Request: fold
Amino acid sequence: MSHDYLSQTPLLDYRAATIQKLIAQRGWAELAEGERIGAAYEFVRNEVLFGYNSDDALPASKVLSDGYGQCNTKGTLLMALLRALGIPCRFHGFTIDKGLQRGVVPELVYPLAPCNIIHSWVEVQHKGKWLDLEGFILDQDVLGALQAKFPERTSLCAYGAGTDCLQRPNVEWAGRSTYIQKTGINRDFGVFDSPDAFYAEHRQLTGLRGLAYRLIIRHWMNRRVTQIRTGRVPTFPGGDKNLVSAASDSQTDEVA
Reply:
């Protein structure tokens, strides 16, 4: 089977004027390969804020104009930037347990959320190896607020984080894999050439539930993320027992 890890697709629309303008203004194309990856990665991690868009299957240019995103949409933008910079990359699809989103999803509607939520990370080819890039999902202000709220915790699977290394997670680009939601993963769909190929097979929140999410719930969630970013971390029932995933015993982040 042939693979194309550099092509543009409808979602990876890296020839869009806004994406090309960003790359030109930042001078990323002139950098060495590792620096190109790092520049795109850190831009998506911290300059595109953690938040919830209207759909997973948005073009990269739309995510850029929104200025925020979650795992799937920020991943699409990162892939588009990487391919525009000549860096081969591919899509790895999963689901995560909905407990990872607890504290962001309001308790009133949490019981209605799907038990398994579509998740993804980006795999990038660097120095002959495929590396997993997932640590870009939470911007540093959100991550820092969670670290300050739970200074004694090592494992956390809530508020959009799923890690066994809360105080020292591998989220900065250093030429290795990065993770921030890994311990919430409960199903692996495998690798796809593009997000387009994945979403042709796997979609979520359709019909009335999808409409409610797009029109009401995601805005509610984004307000809660804004609160977290400023240090006001919401509480939810259950205490410590609901702050970790059952998967955390068998999955750990790589720590240098």
Observations:
- Residues 247-256 have pLDDT under 50 and may be disordered.
